[in-house]
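Researcher: Structure for this, please.
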Amino acid sequence: MTDARRPSADRIVDIGGIVGALALAAALRLPDLATRGTWDADQGHDMLVLRAFVRDGVVPLLGPPTSIGTFHHGALYYDVLAPAAAVSGGDSPLAVVFLIALGGIAAVGVTWWLARAIGGPVAGLVAAFAMAISASSVEASTFIWNPNIIPLSSSIALAAGWQGWSSGRMRWWLVAAVGVAITMQAHVLGLTLLPIVGALLVLAIRRATPPDRVRLIRVAGVSVVIIALSYIPLVVHELTTGGTELQALAAFLRDGGASANLALPTRLLVIGTRAISWPLTGLLSDGAIPALIAVFAVVALVILRWRAPETRERLAVRWLGLGLVWAMLALAILAPSLATITAGLPNDHYHAFADPMVFVLVGVGMAAAVRSWRNRARGPGAVVGATAVPLTVAT
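Model: Predicted structure, token format:
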């Protein structure tokens, strides 16, 4: 092998790092899946639906019931899990849990890809290892529940959107649309992710040349169609039942939706703290001090990189940082119950779509800190490049 073809030491470390992160993620998620996961009415309901789907051909038109009203999440959740359920004819929950665990491992890889594309190899490795060992992410990979597929679908949507923006390959936006559709179907509040990915697409349209702008607008239209198609089962249900889901949703909104006992600023503070700290330190009620430290660190990293000298990183930090702000505001309005912490009530999954954003921001911020330390160590005038190494898949 010639020197030109020999992998660099950095490349070897880069590849070895992600392989190590994925191996660690697997080691923390796959053992004893048959006994470690939660099992209650939600899991039993989902397995009965999947069993009827794969064994009797009863196609689900609605997803799991929501906890805030008499309407439901999307049926696409069952379509995603159906191949695993079909392995045992719907009799074994283990096959379904195994698929969810694989999704949790894959989410580590996709999050690494996004962070690496923005902030370079160190950013990717920090984000990947943080997600691999996150107690919240590990737990969400070990039992059957509709929010547990969201970290993968959300990371796909964000990473594909970033690839569409940075590479100019328009088909990445279609991949992003699929990720957004799955997130929205897996949980009704996944709708919050749509404006985050959509904002980047709007920026791409605005900066494009006239010919490319026309093509991007067409891609945006196709993306809307992809998301709309995911709601076909709901449309069929409404047409055949007289619109019971819409009636239930209207009743929920008419009655005031989720009650808000706290003022909006207070809700923003509590929900923002939960959304940022959850993937890093777990439940706010289990450790307020670590949670507050995590929030302070993430906010500080975003502020410090808000004016990053590298255009790519600066845009990404602002995109994800403002995306988190939007998510907090939307959740404070749409899910005010998140501001009330109830022991034993598992509702931090409401913001699972934001987990990859938090991990990426931590990775990018830590990578910048490492570069700064290296620059100081090398003395005056030494500058270590901050440019991310592109790692794209040809389309």
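Researcher: Any notable elements?
Model: Residues 54 and 86 are 6 Å apart (CA to CA). Residues 391-395 have pLDDT under 50 and may be disordered.
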